[in-house]
Amino acid sequence: MSAVLQQPDIRICPMQLRDVEAVLEIEHAMYDYPWTEGIFKDCLRVGYCCWLLLEDEEIVAYSVLSAAAGESHLLNLCVRKESQRRGYGRQLMEHMLKLAKRHDANVCLLEVRPSNIAAIDLYEKMDFVEVGMRPAYYPAKGGHEDALILARELTL
Asked: Could you tell me the pTM of the whole model?
């Protein structure tokens, strides 16, 4: 007798105000310097692209993207620790890039900590390239950490 593995039900949907509490739980678990409730609510209020990836109706990842004047800026992309290395970050990132194109963006920019090797690996695999650095951009224990600025052309 063989066991049948049940595949999880995965869907991507817009973030709503009611989702902010659950998103904050993940944000606080993942980061030493998390976004605040106010930041997420402001992103929703001003109409940024705020999306969730759900596994069996549970939020496992989220992302926030702004798009205007031919550019998009990925502001946040996070996958819950226990759900990492399953391709969810890539799935959500691909979705966000499609949204950026729908908003007539020609490029997607993002900042990432040089210490966030897993994120940098994902972005490089998705054809992002380093275009600059912001010194002392992120708060860090004992001071600040630089931010790498990565970009990907969306006209390809």
From this structure: 0.92
